[in-house]
Amino acid sequence: MNIGRLLYDQNWNIGFCGLTPEELIKNKALPTVRWMKHPYRDRWFADPYILKASEEEIVVFVEECPIEAPKGILCELHIDRKSMRLKERYILLELDTHLSYPAIIEYEGKTYVYPENGASGQLNIYEYDEATHRLINPVCILNKAVADATIMRDGNSFTLIATRFPETQKDAFLYESKSLFGPFMPVTDKPFQDSLSCSRPGGNWLHVYGALYRPAQNCSEVYGGSLKVMYVDLIKGNEQVVCELIPQGFRNNLGLHTINFNNGLCVIDGCGYHYPIIARVINWLRKLKHNIIG
Fold first, then answer.
1. Contact of 102 with 46, CB cutoff 8 Å
2. Would residue 254 count as lying in a domain?
3. Which of 73, 23, 21 is nearest to 44 (CA)?
4. How many CA atoms lie within 13 A of 249 on its CB side?
5. Which CATH number goes with the domain that contains 116?
6. Strand, helix or coil for residue 23
7. 12 lies in a domain?
8. What is the pLDDT of residues 188-241, one digit of tens each?
9. Is 2 a member of any domain?
């Protein structure tokens, strides 16, 4: 095994905790996270959205990405809620180009998913077919390459926030449509947010006690280093940081870039070293050697 594999630090996984959006805004922190247990050593899972959850099982949509050939696909995972072990896995969608961020929205009794597929140059929305565990009937809703698009419904109108390729970490723009199926048009040519620390969306919009919030990725130091929770004022066209959510635990404490909720259950993702103990020892020895030589 080469040194690069030992020091691989993008081993993303998903985890769960009991938390509501109201509790998050009040406490400004995450409780202890229980991480999914799975048998795979050749891939990682990130960008989780909860489809449904019972006392026995949690069903989530995720990005799955092979380590050696990093091109994401979308999968449906069934997880035992007591043991946190992965029970079943279905491929929702696989294309020739990278897929991620399988954002879910319920509309008129159906479930729709509008994943990131920036390499295609557009944003498509798909209908979820529960019988086949597949995403079907794609419709283009925005003819632009965007990253981590996140839609909010307000009555009969829809607001979408996303960053644009190639500057996917910095500037977030707002779009509006009278239909979930588009076309979404830009609200203005100016970015709604232009900071590396809080632009790129990191999960669904949150409505808490009549106020609007959204999670945003902090990419100021590294991609997906942490999450900022933003208070959003769409009328004034600005937002401000409420709190920062940092990675936790021993294995998955190097990054955190997605959070979502479903009926008192919260899901996040986190990344860490593929071999956390070995990688930390190697990095410690390297630092020690540098200090001695320096």
1. no
2. yes
3. 73
4. 24
5. 2.115.10.20
6. helix
7. yes
8. 999 999 999 999 999 999 999 999 999 999 999 999 999 999 999 999 999 999
9. no
- Is 1 part of a structural domain of the chain? no
Domain count of the fold of the chain = 1
Rounded mean pLDDT of the chain? 95
Q: Which domain holds residue 255?
A: 8-293
Question: E strands of the chain, at which residues?
Answer: 11-18, 34-35, 43-53, 57-66, 73-80, 86-93, 104-107, 110-113, 123-129, 134-142, 146-154, 157-164, 172-177, 185-186, 206-208, 211-218, 226-233, 238-245, 259-262, 265-272
CA distance 138 to 125: 5
Instruction: List the structure tokens of 50.
Output: 């909860």
Whether this model's pTM surpasses 0.90: yes
pLDDT digits (tens, 9 = 90+) for 145-175: 999 999 999 999 999 999 999 999 999 999 9
Cβ neighbour number for residue 231 with a 10 Å cutoff: 17
Residue 137 has pLDDT above 80, yes or no: yes
Pairing of strands 206-208, 185-186: unpaired
Say yes or no to pLDDT of 60 above 60.
yes
